[in-house]
């Protein structure tokens, strides 16, 4: 098993998720050791939900699965970079392709990009 340092952040490691082909940053999530093992074993991005306090297989509810194409680890072994194939074209639970759809300009925040799906139709 590839060893990561889960101790620095209380049992979690930050996980940056990028589109494998474009390099677009899709989201930031966290993995515990179980999520790490599941991701490596299945090839599906699996995270730890800090809100629900449970394992979270990306796309299990929405169908917007992330197939892992490449895994990188930072120099301190405490941060993961997943390069993924984003199925369904949306990584964000709010319906946008990327979770980073808010842009700061001139002391204001504006939404950029278009929604790919309506979350009310997917999650309710």
CATH class reads Alpha Beta
Q: What share of the residues does DSSP label as strand, in percent? A: 35-45%
SSE pattern, N- to C-terminal: EEHEEEEEEH
Mean pLDDT: 94
Please describe the biggest sheet, giving its number of strands, its sense, and whether it closes into a barrel.
Answer: 4 strands, mixed
| Radius of gyration, in angstroms, nearest whole number | 15 Å
The shape, in one word, is globular
Instruction: Give the count of helical stretches.
Output: 2
**What order do the strands of the largest sheet run in, or round the barrel if closed?**
2-1-6-5
Helix content: 10-25%
Query: pLDDT under 50 segments (min length 5)?
Result: none
What is the name of the CATH superfamily? Phosphoribosyl-AMP cyclohydrolase
The total of beta strands comes to 8
Structural class: mainly beta
CATH architecture: Roll
CATH fold annotation: Ubiquitin-like (UB roll)
Rounded to the nearest angstrom, the distance between the terminal CA atoms is 38 Å
Q: What can you see in these coordinates?
A:
By secondary structure, this protein is mostly beta strands. It is about 10% helix and about 35% strand. It has a single domain, classed as Ubiquitin-like (UB roll), CATH 3.10.20. The chain contains two helices and eight strands. The strands form three sheets. It has a four-stranded mixed beta sheet. Strands 3-4 form a two-stranded antiparallel sheet. A two-stranded antiparallel ribbon has the order 7-8. A hairpin with a 6-residue loop joins strand 5 (about 65-75) and strand 6. It is globular.
């Amino acid at each position: 098993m590839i060893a990561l340092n889960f101790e620095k952040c209380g049992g979690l490691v930050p996980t940056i998720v990028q589109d494998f082909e474009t390099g677009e940053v899709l989201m930031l999530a966290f993995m515990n050791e179980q999520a790490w093992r599941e991701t490596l074993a299945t090839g599906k991005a699996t995270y730890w939900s800090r809100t629900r306090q449970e394992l979270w297989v990306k796309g299990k509810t929405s169908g917007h699965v992330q197939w892992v194409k490449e895994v990188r680890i930072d120099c301190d072994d405490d941060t993961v970079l997943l390069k993924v194939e984003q199925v369904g074209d949306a990584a964000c639970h709010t319906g946008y392709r990327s979770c980073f759809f808010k842009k700061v300009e001139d002391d204001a925040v504006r939404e950029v990009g278009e929604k790919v799906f309506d979350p009310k139709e997917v999650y309710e």
